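Lay summary. Proteins are chains of building blocks that fold into shapes, and those shapes determine what they do. In this project we predict the shape from the chain. Here is one chain we studied, written as its sequence of building blocks.
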Amino acid sequence: MSKDNSKSFAGKYPSECTSILVGKRQTADGSIICSRSEDWDAMVAKNFEVYEDTDDGPREFVARDSAFRCPLPAHRLGYTALAPYHLPGHWGSAGFNSAGVGMSSTETIFSSDKALEADPLVPTGLAENCIYNIVLPYVTTAREGVERLGSLIEKYGSAEGYGIQFVDHDESWYLETAAGHRWLACRIPDDEYFVTGNQSRFRRYDPADKANYLASADLIEFARDHGLYDPAKEFDFHEAYSHDGGGDVTYDYPRVWGLQGIFTPSLKQSVERNTFPVFLKADSPITLDMVRQAFRFHYDGTDHDPYLHSNPKEPFRPVSIFRTTQTHILQVRPDLPKEIGCITYFALGMADLSVFLPIYQGIKSFPHAYTVGTNVSSPDSAYWKMRKVQALGMVNYNLYAPIIKSTFAALEKENDERQREFEAEYMAVVKTRPLQGADMLQAFSDRILTRALEVADSLTERLFTEITINTQKEYLFHGA
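And here is the predicted shape, written in a compact code that computers can read:
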């Protein structure tokens, strides 16, 4: 592995995201989907981690890049994580625990100045870097995840604003912070979907409806007492606590407008006004592939497509951007054992020029290449193998992106078929021979992940060849 001997790029750019959550009666196969892109810094490699169940876990969490610390229970569930290279054991991002609970952390959001004046952020409180690793290993349902995180926010306060996703075999939840010590979580309706991009989106809150809402106890009263909303009107969480306007108009609105336009094209709405429905029904059942393609969205083929027009100054912020470090799709299929029913599909780097690969909950390890990588390109890192393909593609997007996209589309189709075949074989074995089933699962995962690296290497060589040919044509200087 190449030595990390350069100055860290971490912290140079803000961590920003786009999220999509889909209810189980809104998907084509009855699965539940929680998903998010993590847009940060292309130089920050992401590495996979696996933790086992233990009754002797760490008793305290001490953040590496913030002032937060807190005690932890001795019993810790096993879980998978995807961490930045310089913060192992921190900022886990996404995955499932051994109870089959999935979590995605975090979507950066912002409270209004007035809300923060009334309830300021806490510099020593929960920052985005710590939430995943102090919540997911200690909960057995999605609701428990919301409750644990909510209690931590109330006790320690939040150092910044964020949205967090939880999912289990029955339901999914999304939590948004309101300010320093307040929060609201909503259960995603089974027959609708929810999209957001760096802005709080919740509106309605019914304190009596505990099945669909959880929140800090004084959420409404605090807003009333501090003049954050007019008590003569129905309480609106977004109006009371959230930032709106300014950069949101071109940075956040277009992504919500664009994604709702993908899933519900029959709905015609303005991109310039924040009147987007919070939850919405799709025109047709949403498939896994539709979600994969949604994370590749960049106003394709329109005047606002920055890649088609080679325009890095495009005001509409795309979903898929080059500095995306990873995109994940947590899918729960309740009719299957959690070992294969809970899957994290991930794409390293920019989703538009990457491939989504499956991680089954039941695996115990990753090929070495997926666990190494720094902020210096190296040939042994899965992150950098994918990033090389993307960097070459962006040399001339219109010329080279079609090569990348067709190659990875074929690999995704191949993997989908291989998964169907493998899962049938696994189900035929696992009930009577569970150890053999576990070995089959690990071997299949290793093959799929290793094969992706081989395809990426081959694609890199093809792109380098094409770039060499075209560069020679441009600078031929062939003489007489």
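What the prediction tells us: The first strand starts at residue 16 and ends at 22.
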